[in-house]
Structures are given as structure tokens and as C-alpha cells.
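For practice. Supply one:
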Amino acid sequence: MTTQGPRSATYAAHYDTPPQQETAGARTWLTRGANFVVSVSQVEAGAVLARENNPDEYFVFIPAGGARIQAGGESVDAGAETVTIVPPGASRIEATAAGTVVRVFSKLAADLVAASVNNAVYADGAPEVAPLVPWPDPPAGFKLRHYVLADYVRADSNMRIFRSTNLMINPLAKRVVPRDVHKLSPHTHADFEQASLAVQGTYVHHLRWPWTPDMDMWKEDEHVEVGSPSVTVIPAKVLHTSRNVSEGDCWLIDIFSPPRMDFSSKPGMVSNEDEYPLPPAAA
């Protein structure tokens, strides 16, 4: 019987690899996890990114540039450094300026899952990851929800966390000097993955896989330097921490699916917690 080895991390360096999709005015890189897909598009003004009938909500994050987002009979003009939650169904994003449009989907966006650069990594279905079970619908209904990140700066934290029924993103505060190597934060996640999207600066991701009784299954530690834009997917149970190593603005966005209960159970930690109820067992 073949023993399944530990899952590898994904280091998708968009600046050094061809895109998975090219349309008029847009080049798009796709990277998946067990429960999510991260889509990063470099766009020219006028480029359109559309979904005909997306099955569930997705996030739009614009680190630079701007776009008009339309869905459910509504529209919002999203500037740089904003986050928007898009409802299920048809949607259209038109770039109003050259820049970057990041979309984060759940694994229900099957066409994007299949097109992801690392789709083969998940051929076994990722049994170590908890399944995606949607959280309760928002009481005010599904609609465009728009957030300007500058409105959610916290004096006591570098986190700005937002959740939907199926996803959670955390656009961390920018770092302007290299991270202090004496103040890192190594940690693990028992049954979910983390995607770390670098949109500015250079980072080193430090990963350590747990030992198992079978020494043949052990993996060497990894210390991988990546630039921007890039997506790193960190497997469940892997000890990890990240540090920016370049001067100037460095910006990392962490992505999870489903939403994290540990963050969501702390009052005030999730910026839009009033819009999305907790699952009944946790409420």
C-alpha cells in the first residue's frame, strides 16, 4: 500500500511565471487551496472580469488601481485599498484604472479550481482539511458590501479581518521596515490552510512539517523567499511564520476558507461581524 506523503506548500511567483488566463486587457494568475481559489489579475483600464453565475459569495480586493463592481442590480466604485464582498450570481468588474484586481473564491468556482496552477496538488481531495460548510446567510441578504481599509485601522492590532459566509481575508497593515527576527510568530493550523498573498515587497516564508512515525515521510524545513505579487499556500498542521525582508512598503494578505472560528469568536476582531452571524453551535 502506498503511503501518502505530507502535502507540499505552493509558492506561486506571478512575477516569474505566465498567467493561467489572458483576456482583453487582463492577465490572471490562479492558485488554489483545498477550499479556495486566489485570482490575481493585472489589468488595464477598461478590462472586464465577469462571472455569469457564481454559486456563492466572493471577495474583491484592490491593492492598486480602481474598478466598478456590479452585481445584484447594484454597483460600487471601488478605489485602491478597498475590499468588496460580491453576492452569488452574475457579476461584472470593469477596471477604471490600470492596476491589480484580486478575487478570492471558494472551491465552488469549479472552473477556476480546474485552471489553477497547482490543481494537481489536491488530486487526493485534501482529507486533512476540514470541509467547506457555509456559515449562516447574512440577515440583510446577499448584496454588495464595500469596505475602505483606512476606516478599519486598529491601534491595538495590525489585522483588518473580514468574513463572508464562506471566506475570510485579513489585509494586514503594511510593514515599512524588515520584520524583527526576534519577534516572529510561528504557529500551526490544525485543520485548515492559509494562503498568504504578497502584493508589495519581498518576504521569506519559514515552514516546518511535523514528524511522523515513518521517517521516510519527513520533509526538510523550507525557507523560501518570494517577491510580489505571489501566493503561498501553507498546508494544515505545518508550523509557519513569515517576515518581510525588503525596505519600503511590504503588504501581505492572509486568506482562509471557511472563516476562522478562533478569530470570529472574539468580539470586535472581525471588522464586519455584525453583518454575518456565527454558526448556531458557536453563537
User: Anything to note?
Assistant: The chain has a mean pLDDT of 96. The chain is about 5% helix and 40% strand. Residues 135 and 278 are 7 Å apart (CA to CA).
